[in-house]
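// run 5 | inverse folding | seed 20
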């Protein structure tokens, strides 16, 4: 029983990573769609994310933290 749980663990990590990539792709698609509807907000979310990455790096945040903030922006 314990060996099966260990064997499945890498599969869970792979599944979670795939789910996370798909979720972020969906959010980016939604953001792009909403931005395209209004010229004044076009690219706003991408600029916010880029600024957050720059600020996080300047503040000495870990790469993991910078990635989390980028995903949230």
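// decoded
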């Amino acid at each position: 029983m314990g060996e099966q749980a260990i064997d499945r663990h890498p599969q869970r990590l792979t599944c979670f990573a795939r789910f996370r990539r798909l979720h972020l792709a969906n959010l980016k698609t939604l953001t792009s769609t909403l931005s395209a509807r209004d010229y004044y907000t076009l690219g706003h979310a991408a600029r916010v994310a880029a600024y957050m990455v720059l600020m996080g790096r300047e503040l000495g945040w870990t790469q993991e933290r910078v990635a989390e903030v980028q995903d949230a922006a």
